[in-house]
Amino acid sequence: MRRFLATLAVGALAAWSASASEIDALKGRYGFDWLVDLAKSKCVKIDDKLIKTFSSPSYVCDLAPDATTASSGVAFKCKRKDGNSEYLIFHTLAACRKEHETQSNNAE
Questions:
Q1: Rounded Cα gap, residues 41 and 63, in angstroms
Q2: pTM of this prediction?
Q3: Cα–Cα distance between 91 and 16 in angstroms, integer?
Q4: In whole angstroms, what is the distance from residue 20 CA to residue 5 CA?
Q5: Which structural domain, as residue segments, surrounds residue 67?
Q6: pLDDT band at residue 94 under the 50/70/90 scheme
Q7: Of 49, 50, 92, 102, which is most buried by a Cβ count within 10 Å?
Q8: With b meaning 16 or more CB within 10 Å and e meaning fewer, what string describes 62-83?
Q9: Which of 84, 92, 79, 73 is nearest to 31 (CA)?
C-alpha cells in the first residue's frame, strides 16, 4: 500500500510539472506573483531570467489552461515548491493587468 501511495504521489507531481521546453513557451507572456503584496507587485514580461527560475528544481509549472482566476481569465501557473511564490501567467499584458486589478480590488 505504501508503495502504491508513493507511486501515486510521484505520478501526480510529474503530471503537474511541465518540461523545460514547455516552460520555454511562456517567454514573452505576462505574469505576476500573486502571493506577494499586490500593492507592490506588477505584471512583468516573462523573460529568460524568469524562464530559468521556473525551470529550476525549486519550481513546478502547470501549463494546463486554468480559467479559475479571479477575473475568469485563462492562466498558467509556476510556483515554488516551498509555497513562497506562485506566478499566474497570461497570454497578454491586458489579461495580466485585469487579473492583478481584480485581485487587488478583492483584497481591499
A1: 22
A2: 0.79
A3: 20
A4: 27
A5: 2-107
A6: very high
A7: 50
A8: ebeeeeebbbebebbbbbbeee
A9: 92
Q: Say what the pLDDT of residue 17 is.
A: 57
The arrangement of strands across the sheet holding 59-66 comes to: 44-45, 30-33, 86-90, 75-80, 59-66
Q: How sure is the predictor about 1, in pLDDT bands with cuts at 50, 70 and 90?
A: very low
Give the residue from 36, 5, 8, 6 showing the smallest Cα distance to 104.
36
With beta carbons less than 8 A apart as the criterion, state whether 67 and 81 touch.
no
Q: Which residue has the cell 514580461?
A: 45
Q: How many residues are listed for the chain in this entry?
A: 108
Give residue 45's identity as a one-letter amino acid code.
Answer: K
Q: What are the E-state strand segments in 34-85? A: 44-45, 59-66, 75-80
